[in-house]
Amino acid sequence: MAAVTPIRAAGGVVWRPAAGGVEVCLVHRPRYDDWSLPKGKLMAREHPLAAAVREVAEETGVRGQPQVRLPSAHYRRDGIPKVVDYWSMRALSVPRFRGNAEVDRLRWLPPEQAARRLTYPHDARVLRHFVSLPAITAVQVLVRHGQAGKRGAYPGPDSARPLDPVGRAQARALAPLLALVAPDRLVSASPRRCTQTLDPLVSLVELPIEADPSLNEPKPGQDPIDVTAEAAGRLIALATDGVTTVVCSQGKVIPGALARMAALGSPKAWTTPKGTGWLLAYTGPHLTAADRLTP
């Protein structure tokens, strides 16, 4: 008997500041007469993170900024397995809600009240995980540049080596995912292949790329530990500024910097293929969560 392909969906625990803490958003669906977290099915070839942000916007009108990946919910709908991926999302805007046939009511509630209102235990489990997190003060996306051919095959200086066709395609695929976090700054290591990786994002968010040599890989004679320590310090400094930043760096920097910030695991655990990255969430200067981001 052939295995049944699960239904894939995505959504979010959307929150906003409130007196004494936060409020989270629940939606009522008249079709099921239930109260749930906003979510919906993925479209064909859609990335789960993109689907989560889109579905939250469609069901609530809220522009949510993804922050921390939460546990996925697994259950059956009409006998078919369903998997829903969730992220915590800060509400960047809260327009006046307009109900429709799919979602007719919306409530902003303190988490403990929301947990009692939710219809399904799997939604409540996701909410409990959200409540257990420390307050997130900054979001950052850290990516490795796209493919750029062979180091020894480029006739000019290595710093000028450009993305190859595969790398340019990787940059184009990354751009819409990076834009989901609504960045305030774009910061890149200085090699051309790094700044080029962020070029497709520039047209989406209308921000300049700031070149920062502290994110460059070690030069001959430099101690790699010192270089990754400097890069980690720069990433933390950007986070403690309280702004959302997209950062592009290099393969000899990212694993060591993340291992240092996470204070656990070897750099090998943080190996980052070209054209991929990490969604990072901070609490002050501390790295709270890291979720792989792969187009």
From TrEMBL:
Gene3D superfamilies: Nucleoside Triphosphate Pyrophosphohydrolase, Phosphoglycerate mutase-like. It holds the Pfam family NUDIX. InterPro entries: His_Pase_superF_clade-1, His_PPase_superfam, NUDIX_hydrolase-like_dom_sf, NUDIX_hydrolase_CS, NUDIX_hydrolase_dom, Nudix_hydrolase_domain. GO terms for molecular function: bis(5'-nucleosyl)-tetraphosphatase (asymmetrical) activity. It comes from the Bacteria. Keywords: Hydrolase. This is NUDIX hydrolase. It comes from Phytohabitans rumicis. The lineage of its organism: Bacteria, Bacillati, Actinomycetota, Actinomycetes, Micromonosporales.
